[in-house]
Amino acid sequence: MRWTQSISTWARFLVTGALLSLSLLAFLVYNGHFSTNAAAYIRKPVSTEDTTQHSAQSCSSNSTAEWIFEVERDGDNHGLSEAQCRSAFPLLFTELEKTSDARKDNPITYNELEELPVEDGMVRAIIDKGELYIVDFGAMPVTFSRGKATLHSLHRALASFPASASLPPIEFIFTTEDYSNPTTSPIWSYSKRDEDTSIWLMPDFGYWSWPEVHIGPYKAIRQRIATVDDSLPFAQKKKQLLWRGAVAPNPDIRGSLLTHTQGRSWASVLAIDWGDAQNLQFNFLPMEDHCRYMFVAHTEGRSFSGRGKYLLNCRSVMVSHRLVWREAHHAAMIQAGPDANFVEVERDFGDLDRKIEFLIDHPEVAERIADNAVKTFRDRYLTPAAESCYWRELVRRYALACEFEPVLVKEDGEFRGTPFETSYSSVLRKSFVPLPYICFSPVSLENVALLIQQVDNKVIFVLRAIFENVSGSKPVTVALVSLMVVLNVVSNAAYIGATVRLIHGFAETGSVPCSSWLAQYYFKYQTPTHVLYLLFVANILLPLLQFASSAILATMVGAAVVLFTMEETATVRDANEVDIKKSA
């Protein structure tokens, strides 16, 4: 009976300890993620929207008769006025106008942003008086450089604009993935389809830099491309269609290109395996060397293809299948007539042979198309000046579609955002580093540190006290506690050690710090299926090990304390009984 009561008491303490430890861990991990929306925004007065629209219209109609865009003078000017932007790039804002018009009778609410979770690869930010603030961001296992590039590009467009303080305040969310998952909430993305009415198109990361594929800063690649074109007349370029890339991101389209060019004398089309060093040695071609060919092929990948803007910088004929995924400059693409600046073929490349043969037989037509591409894109719509103009117009159009304005400082004095300059140097640089094996985990490095400091250190302290008292007691108790210590230490050591390894690698290289195996795996297959399978398994196993070991450890500490107390109580009781018997 006494043994049954002891077991019952022990089980009761065990269950209580488990519940308390799980509650503690859950509180530490998720504390601070749930807050009220009160004072996070204010609704716009009805008249504000009308005034803003009138202001935008009047500003766009400012006289620019004395100013004409000149690429040598203005191409790298990130601070053109709104009137100059509209004069120089009249077709640049077509997609923004479509998205804005779709929201005309259905303004964006603050609740819509709240309903959109900031998941992996996403950033939530505020622009207020022309300053950029970071509110929240998700882990970026393979898109860290994209997030960094996008924020820098946006910040440059704001900081270089003399009237940046006059830009309307907005709060927004953007994704660094190739595309945004279907959603009714507003989100900024690098590309969209015609039916994606909730997606706001933004410039892609390549306008800052694309280091993973060895392209580098956008201004530098434009200079290298221009150098190649200046030294090589169009007629002396190789009369071949060039394409290099991985097939896996879009096997239907890219596979069709390989099929329709196989064995053709006019084709130099090769697949690249980013995980094979020997393949890269023989097949990889620097982007500027693409421009040494008379024809360059453009294919969509998982969504848009980032190489398109580089190809359109060449004095070559870009040959593209019919595009589904839109980019900001697509409204300026003309596929027929005397102003044609690229050649369009069917999505299965069924008419590719016929059109290439025609261009080879009519080099004057091909050269005219190539010259039009330079005039339209390299010297206008794909200039750095155009990119910054687009960013600011995105801010204005998005603001017109919102029924609210964000509030940086709540009524209780809490700041909702961190200035970009501070965020990048001290917070983003650390927190954008993905956890080594749990890249999709909601637990940030700060929360991991909090867990270790507030849970593990206290647990170890208690364990030391227990060891000091029970080391000479029951072997089972010591064995259980020892096992839990080993599990917790191993789990934490693997967790922290791998994280430190990645942070160290990031500090040395400045590149995507998700360890070489993950980067190579991603670039080798470039498909969400393989990567997600890999990360899903890792995401399930190791966080569970970390969470479970800490929970079990805390539980066993409670159990060990109970056992130790019961043993001491029994010892004292037995001693008292002996003393009583002796005295009797």
UniProtKB/TrEMBL annotation:
InterPro entries for the chain: CAP10, O-Glucosyltr/Glycosyltrsf_90
Pfam families on file: Glyco_transf_90
Superkingdom in the source lineage: Eukaryota
Annotated organism of origin: Aspergillus nanangensis
Domain Glycosyl transferase CAP10: 166-405
Keywords: Membrane, Transmembrane, Transmembrane helix
Listed transmembrane segments: 531-564
UniProt key word Membrane: yes
Cited PANTHER family: DUF821 DOMAIN PROTEIN (AFU_ORTHOLOGUE AFUA_2G14740) (PTHR12203:SF112), KDEL LYS-ASP-GLU-LEU CONTAINING - RELATED (PTHR12203)
Name used for this protein in its record: Glycosyl transferase CAP10 domain-containing protein
